[in-house]
Amino acid sequence: MSTHRWILGVQALVGLLTLGAALWWWEPPAIPVPWERWQPSGASVGFRIQERKPTVPAQGSVVTLAFAFTSDLHGHLSSTRLLPERKPSGLAHLVPVLRQLRTEHPGLVLLDAGDTIQGDPASFYFSHIRPDSGLPLPIIHAMNQLGYHAVVLGNHDFEPPVSVLQQTIAASKFLWLSGNAWLDGEDRLLLPPYLVLERQGVRVGIVGFTTPGVPLWIDPERIAGLAFAGLVDSAQKWSKILRERENVDLLIGVFHSGDDLRHDQQIAQLRKLPLPNTAGLVADHVIDYDLIVSGHAHKLRPRKPTSRLTRFRTPLLSPGSGGEGVSVARFTLEARAERWQLRDSHFEFHKAARQPDAPLLTELEPQLAEVERYLAEPTRVVLKKRPTRKQLNACGSALQHKATVHAFGAEAITLLPGSWFLPDLPEVDLGQPVTRKHLFGWVPYDNTLVEVALFGRQIARLLETHRRRLLGRRVRYSGWLVPGGIAAVLEGDWLRVQQKNGSSLADTDSLRVWLTNYHANGGSGLQARALIHDEQIQRRTGVFLRELVFAWLQELPEALPEACQSWLAEAVVPT
Known about the structure:
By secondary structure, this protein is α/β, with parallel strands linked by helices. The chain contains 17 helices and 25 strands.
């Protein structure tokens, strides 16, 4: 080899070593996250801890303060519109109730425990179909009109696009609260943790908390860059600040978290997350609060008036869901030794009024009418009769598999929800086309499709609820998956998974399977029990399962599944 070539070779080697050294220290640029430049806006801007002097009431003074609570509204405005129901419910039905309460208690404080902007057709439409309408979501317009003081951030509030949630916070005339949602690894709060109000000389602290189970249910890209701290430690932290620095006289914790510690406990522990439902634990072990409000679980407690809530050490109430009514707490405080002392309390529930507030619905009419036109879009299928629950579930399972195959290919394999909802079906709907409105009733959750590479053993674990169901045992409906493109054959007490070619699926066989994002993210604990790793997720489509089924019924590329033919029929198209 010539000296010249040898020198060129050495130079090339040095160049490669230099590049290698540079690349050794190089890290790829951070993927932008939707919250990295986030600053609270609207009424939620400008939070800071204040050093306040204690209040000094006149000796012997007695005051009564009233608080009204809702929770888990899920965008619901009225049982008379969009998806009508027999039982009166929805925010518009609470207007007369709140009007009467404000007559009795002019300083009434109105609060909500979260899950506000997702779950009804109007919120879906203006979040996903027409997010550029330039108007607040209808539920936010209504809450602004009703004079809410604060709303807690719930897990479902992360389901709309991040831009919609951010715009919603900006458009709200009330505060959004979360004392345990942090940006940048607990370095900066996502939202204000609390609100301090003065009522009749009494300083009131209201702290909001979000269930730390959010990562179990929400797509990772929606919450990238966020961390959710445990509720007990967070409750202790803010109670200390509010009692010692803000010097509040009355302290209320509003939790988007259930009171049953066991619910989702194992799932969270498998995922190494703080426990999602610890409002009851806080009520028993964090003594600085005068009242704990527990949302998320859709419980209603108490239903009857009472002066004692004794299940937990600190009184705990749960305001129900969907605007079925308003929970009210009244506290009487007396001034003793220059401080306010809680003398007694009273708790009651007021049902929603039978009729909604007409002026409020009139204000919202243009938006509601637009959504109703969207819901009225027909398919090529008509309703022959009301289905039984069993018929609906069998048909729904077949439809969602066929729709997935039509969209993603004949080889598609599905493990999708086995339980559809069975709302009232009006007599006038019989003989008429199935519309998008019916699909919203049958499939109320905004779940999207995710493709996951699974081993046979994981598929068997995901079908454990299906096995139990086939054996006649009760299962949690949200965790029941049914197979499509593969068969699940019960042999004694065991389930054999059979592939299209008739062979049994081995534990080490690998298949690409379509799940909903709810189950792929960790909902119902199936992801953790099947040991599904994030790297097994092949693609997140963003395609809504409900919309996919609707599109299939609208196109009707093939005959209806046999499981549907007892109560559905293809529409006769005039020639």
